[in-house]
Structure formats: structure tokens, C-alpha cells
Amino acid sequence: MFESLQEKLDGAFQTLKGNSKLTELNVAQSIKEIRRALVAADVNYKIAKEFTDKIKEEALGSRNILKEVKPGEMMVKIVQDEMVELMGTQSVGINVKGNPGVVLVSGLQGSGKTTFCGKLALFLKEKRKMTPLLVACDVYRPAAIDQLSVLAEQVGAKVFKDIDSKDPVKIAGDAIAHAKVHGFDVVIVDTAGRLAVDEEMMAEIENVKNAITPNETLFVVDAMTGQDAVNTAKAFNDRINFDGVVVTKMDGDTRGGAALSVKYTVGKPIKFVSMGEKMDTLDVFHPDRMAQRILGMGDIVSFVEKAQANFDEKEAKRLEQKFKKNKFDFDDFLGQLNQIKKMGDMKSLVGMIPGMGKALKDVDIDDSAFLKVESIIHSMTPHERGNPDSLNMNRKKRIAQGCGRSIHEINAFVKQFEQMRKMMHKLSTGKGMGNMMKQFGAMQGRK
Q1: Helix/strand/coil (H, E, C) string of 212-252?
Q2: 298 within 8 A of 403, measured Cβ to Cβ
Q3: Per-residue confidence band for 351, with pLDDT thresholds at 50, 70 and 90
Q4: Going from the N-terminus, what domains does the chain have, and what CATH number goes with each?
Q5: How far apart, in whole angstroms, are the C-alpha atoms of residue 226 and residue 191?
Q6: For 99-139, what is each residue's pLDDT tens digit?
């Protein structure tokens, strides 16, 4: 996410390296590179110029105040502050109060609108303890109703649909009445999208909104379409005056234009960002955290929040006892892998750790890395999973045949597992900490 923009901005800051202070000349050079980076990220030139003009003014105004701060570090801080301001200063929650609360979801076809509806249903179920009803109001796109039904099943939600009706206004109204009778406390209305903005589409979404008066109207934009997404958002906002924006496909090859420009252009906050197809990959948008990620600082707060959300205190205590007794087994290991996978895709998680995103920018990190380990463990018998020491050569050969891996791969995995088990045993008993830190230092120093 934002790798290209991050790299170009880093280059702009590097122009200040070696300078003892900010001057009009080196600030102008850095500003020029920052503006180029923003335009390359598909940020509108007018926005990029206004943004960099503010940075220039702030940089020149502070050059004689904090002399002990290096010019490059000062410029990073100024850019970060202005970027947070550009994207909205703070996170804005979603309004789902009502009986029931009603959320109207709009956007172009292919923007990830229907997938977002499923993700929002899961988010409200888990975070707000609500009972959502998804409403299929896309009566044009083939299989749209089926797609929403599949997503609803994945997240444990119900769908209201009327396959005999072609009137979205009637369907939405009937769904809200159904929700009131059957105890649903939030209704999420998935509307039709088109390949481009047209009068028929605008009139329809306007009619639906006027008929159901939603608590919250959200517009979904595809991050990969850059400035086009922002222009589309403006067209929708002029017509239906939505409450907030959802930026999808943030895990793709996004240049950053949409996330950086949309708040400035339409004056409405980004409320959510969505990454990937998994239903649990929806996050509340925090401008300060996003600015940190764009600038390569990571997002440790979001990382910790994800870890806490998947933390099971009872399980942690159980594992602690197993580590102390050196009884940690393959079933336990598999359970921990599943916990990590619940946190989200690995590349996104690594990008949240300060310094790691830049360090591993050319490394292909992929969730399929888990598949090899899982296939090996699943090829073991219950006895073998619970008793790692029982793995002799005959058992390893059978496991290799079962998972389609070589004996070398099985041996390598078992060896790594044993090393990890010994390390965790030492940690849990308080022994060998100093020695382990030395080993870690030696590993860091290896070429």
C-alpha cells in the first residue's frame, strides 16, 4: 500500500540530508519533489500545489525555531501534520442509531460496494453487537442478489430480497418494515452501481434515499482508480449529499490519490478503509495513522489493536503452562497460526510495524506461506500432532507423501519447530534470556 508514494516522498526528504538547517533553496528543492510525488500518486495538481505551499510556509517559518532538529526530520514532521489535516484530522464514527438504524451504500459497479456491505455487517455484529439485515436493492446486475446472499452467509447475517420486484424504493421500504417487526437493529441497503455516472442511476439512488431517510449514506470508492474516484465522489455528493466515504482495495497497487484527495474535494470524511476479500478486513479510518504509514513510519497502534482483538487470555495462560513444561505441540502451533491469520493479510500486518514495510518492500509476503506448514501438520495423525517427539523417519516419510512435500522440507520444519519450542520454554522459565539476546544479536549481524 502506497509503496511508490512512500518511496518518492522518502527521496524528497533525502534532498535535505547533509544540510545543517532549512533554507529557502533546500526547502524549495524538497517541496518540488514532494509535489511531483503527489501528482504521480494521482493527486489533483491544484490540491498538490496548495498542500506543498502550506508545507513550504510552515518549513520556512520554523527553520529558526528548532535548530536542534535535523532538516529532514523537521520536513517529515511538517508533511505528516499537513497530511493528517488534508485527510480529516481525526476518525469519524458511523451513525447507526435508530429503530432500526439505516445505512445506504452507494458507488459505481466494481468499486467493492457489495463486498463492503458484507464487511460492514460483520463489523457491526462484532464491534457494536448489533443484528444486521442486508438488503438487496441492486436489481440490474446479474447475480448481485446471489453475491450478497453468499456474503451474508459468510458473516452470519440475514438478507432481505424480493426477486419479483424491480423497484429499489419499494424493496428498501419493505426491508425496513421487516426489520422493525423481526428485531433487526441495523439495515444495510446495497444499491445498484453502473460503469459510469448517469442520470438514471443518480435519480434512482436519490429516490431511495428520500424514501428511507437513512441515518448514514456512504459512498464507496476504489483506491486503485485514483483521481477518477474523487471526481465520481464529487458527482455523487452533489446529488445525494452523502455522509462519508469508504475506500476499498487498499491492499492493491493503489497510488494514494483517492485517500489523500477525497476529503479536500467533497468535504466529507473517509470513515472506513477496506483491504482484500476477507470479511474481517474492514478498518475504521484514522488520518494520523494513515499519514504515518504513507511516510513509512508504520502503524503500531492499529497492529496492537488487531492483536488485542484476537487475544484469548485463557488460551494464553494454557500455552504458558505448556511452554513451561516443554509440552507445546503441533496442534498448539496450528492454533497460533490461525490466530495470526485472523489479524489480516501478512503484508498489511508487516507494513504496520515501524521500519518493516520499507525493509521488506521487495519481499513477496503472502498468506499462502502458511499453507505449506498447515499441509504438513494436517498430514500427521492426532497422536503425532500431540507428540512431536514421536516423529521418526518412517512417520516423516508418510507425512511427506501425504502432503506432497519432500523429506528435506519435513525435516527443516520439524527442526525449526523444535528450536522455537526450546526458545519458548527458556523464555517461560526465565532461563537463558541473556544468551538468547546474544544469539538474536548475532543473527542480526549476519550477512
Answers
A1: HCCCEEEEEEEHHHCHHHHHHHHHHHHHHCCCEEEEECCCC
A2: no
A3: low
A4: 3-87 (1.20.120.140), 101-297 (3.40.50.300), 312-445 (1.10.260.30)
A5: 22
A6: 899 999 999 988 899 999 999 999 999 999 999 999 999 98
Categorize the per-residue pLDDT at 395 as very low, low, confident or very high, splitting at 50, 70 and 90: very high
What pLDDT is stored for residue 206 in this prediction?
Answer: 94
Choose among 208, 227, 190: nearest CA to 116: 190
Residue 202 above 50 pLDDT?
Answer: yes
Cell numbers for 444: 542480526
Measure the CA–CA gap between 9 and 15, rounded to whole angstroms.
10
pLDDT in tens, 74-108: 888 888 889 889 888 888 889 998 889 999 999 99
